[in-house]
Structures are given as C-alpha cells and as structure tokens.
Amino acid sequence: MNIVKQYICSIIYLMKKLIILLIFIVSSSVSSQSIFVQVKDSLSLSPIPFSTVSFSNNKGLISDENGIFQLITSELINQDSLFVSSMGYEKVSYPLLKFKDSIIYLSPKPVVLNDVILTNKRLSSIEIIQEAYKNIDKNYEKDLTKNKIFLSKRSSSKTKRFNTSKFKSSIKEINYSLLDSISNNLSKENENALEILCYQFGNIEQDKQKISLIKARETYNKEDEILESLNTKLELYLKENIKSDSYFKIKSGLFGGDLEVDGLHDFDSTDLEVISKKNEEDLKRKKNFAGYQKNTINNFYSTLFFNEDSDFNFILKPNKYTFSEPELNFIGEDLIYVIECNPKGNSKYKGILYINSEDFALIRLDFKNTKSLFKFKLLGVAFNQYLRKGKLLLSKFDNEKYNLSYAQITSNQTFSIDRPIRLIEKNKNVKGRRKQNEISFKIDMAFDQENKTEIQVFESSKISIDEFEKIEETNKVLPEFLDEFTTNFWEEF
Q1: Taking the model in full, what pTM does it have?
Q2: Bridge partner residues of 384 (DSSP)
Q3: How many secondary structure helices (H) and strands (E) does the chain include?
Q4: pLDDT tens digits, residue range 243-271?
Q5: What values do phi and psi take at 402, rounded to 5?
Q6: Are β-strands 255-260 and 247-252 bridged in parallel, bridged antiparallel, or unpaired?
C-alpha cells in the first residue's frame, strides 16, 4: 500500500512544482571540451568494460560498461602520464600532452603458469570456495573506516502510456484542456543525474554509518517554451485559488493520505515565525538529502558477499549454487581463479567470482539476477523489478585487509497505475467547512525505469571507535543545479 501512496503523493508534489501529473523530472546530456576514449581488445576489437584509468598523480577513474571514459582537457595540464589496465591485459601508458586518441587498445596477457602451480594439486571450485570462506576474517576489513567516496546516480524513464480522463475541477481555470496540453508536451523519455562527493565513516553495520557531504550537483532538462508557458499559467491559477496554509487530502479508492503544500506562495520576509519555519524546513531537506545518500552507500557495503544478509551468498552458502571448473587469469600481477556460479532452487542471482590464488580473497564479483526480484499487482497498481546487475571490486588501499573500492549496480523496473484519484484542498484555519477545492481524474499510466548507481572509493583508512563517536553529522549541502556536467567531479578536490 505504501508504494501506491508514494506515487500518488509524487503527483501532488510535482503539481505544485508546475508539472501536474509528471512523476520524473527530465534530464540533460553531458558535454564539454573533452575527449571520450574507448578501451578495446587489440585482437577481438571488442570493448573492455571497467578498465582502470590512472594518472601520474595516482588519481584515476574506471571506464563504463562499454569501455568508455572521459578526459577533461583542462584537467590534464598538471598530469604527464595516463595508464590504462584491465584484468588479463598488458598495462599501457601514454604521455598526456600529446594524447588525442579516441581508442586505446590493450593486448591480452598470456597466462604463464610457474612450476609451483603446475606441480601442485589442482584445486576444484568447491575447494577454492572453501578456502575463500576460511579466510574471510583474515582478508576483509570489518572495522571502522574513513572513506572518501564519489557517488553517481543516473536515472532514465520511458513512458509507455499516459492518459487522464473523467477530469473535474472546482478551479475553473484548471481544466482538462490545460492539463491535456501539459500532458501532450511532456517528454516521453526522461533522464536525470546526481553526483556527490563525500566522506563516509563506518562499517557494514547499519547503525555504524555516518556521512559528511562535501559537494553535490545534479542536471536535468529544463522546460521548453511551450511547456514553461503552460506551467506558468498553472502556477498562477494555483496561487490565486489555494490558501498558503492549506493541505491536500489524497484519495484513491481505499487509499488516502495528507500532503502539506508549500512553495506556491511568497512569504513575508519580516515575519520571524515564517522565517523560522522556512529555516527549519531547509535544515530538514538538507538532513534528509544527506540521510538518503548515506543509506545508498550503506546498501553497497551491506551487499558485500561476506555479510550474512547479502543476496550474493556464493561463498557463505555454496550449497545453493553450482560452480564451473576454475579458470586462471590475471588481475595486474596477481594470478586469479575465475569461477562461474549459477543458482539452484529459490536463489535469484548468478555470478562470476574472481578469487586471488595467493590469499583466496574474492576481489571482484560480477552478478545478475535470473528471475524477477519483486512483483506487485493489486487494485490497478502494478510494479515489477525485473533486472538487477552489477559488479563489486575490492582493494587493500593502505590497510592490510580488502575493502570496497568500486561498485556499480543497475536496476530496471516497470510501474503502472490505472485508478481514480481525488485531490481535496483542506484548511484547518477555516471555520466551518474545511474543504476548499477539489480536483479529480482517472489516471492510466505505465513506464519503464532504469537506475544506475556507482561509487568509487578514492581513499580508505581505519579509524577508532572513539574517532567515530566524535564525528558529528552537520550536513548543510544540497545539490547545485547545472545545465551540464563539465568536469570530472572529484578532480576539483
């Protein structure tokens, strides 16, 4: 039931933000004076995803799933060399001052087995998994750490159906003709992006998480002239007819709820009570924004395979999976066992495990669901999360143990609603009948959505419990809107 209320509330929220009935705010593309480079296999010419790209100052980034990364020309002045590497390939380097290539080719590295490996007993996949399990406590960092993190969220949605009917309104200016015009001018494909740079403090435990935001930015498409004109009219009509202290009662059959309305009216800058309320609301928005980012990062750490509650329990519960014969490959100079695993019974994920042959640490995990993760259909509301895939990479940083260094998760879902909705304006300060205005309609909509979340950990160091307890979360950061992202965000710091 909560998901129904969530989406209905979103409709009202966006209505007061001048786009009635729109669920997702639209996007922008990323462009600048930059070079887009793709990493490819020199033999097969196929893209090499998630290659490591580093510079002479030890900073770096990771290419996307298509092997593409972006070089910002203005940021390369003080850096002299570019290094590109990937598992199973020879590392390459280039002088940056003369670098203008759009494609970098990596040559496959031959797997050369030394005499020790050849003469020792060859381990089976189960034996390797057992060794990985026995070495969990020795290999992975579970104590408190301070991590400098870049967090990226990108969302895109495609509207499959968007219809309204049976429209009624007590505000004569807000009529079906106006809303139909707004609906017809909405983009069918929408995107948005959010980037955050922060310090995260904690471990895999939910109550041992703190965050300190450094900076945040977001980008999305602004309205075109036609839509902006229509929304201006809608804003004017709402200001003229809705009281500043009103709230909306939302009803949709068996479902209902209240939603406070703010932001439609100007406030008196000399009214201390109003100013205090606005300041409190501003602090609450900042706190909620920081809390949401903290939860997002915590979800990555909680998915790590050595966590008892992780969905990726390939090592903790190997009896739920079947494993391929191990293959040998390289990550850098380390010899790695590569094992594919497929679910048995009710398990929902398959994976590829990359296990260090020396210490039996699982240092990379690729995963993808094999069945729908969540389905819901009731009373005209339907939801289906049909895809979740990604990868987790772990590194030692300056610590003796491995910790999360990179993660990416992509999820896809569909949502639809076919229900009548009533929006009733009420006011507690009006004597007698509190009902003021009412807008009702039937909505029939459906869309696909893709969310891609990525984190890169640039620094990680251990901290004591005393240091952790002294950290105060005084987050006062909200994202800055940009028409376009013109720099690699973390390079500013």
Answers
A1: 0.72
A2: 375, 414
A3: 8, 22
A4: 666 666 666 654 555 555 554 445 555 55
A5: -80, 145
A6: antiparallel
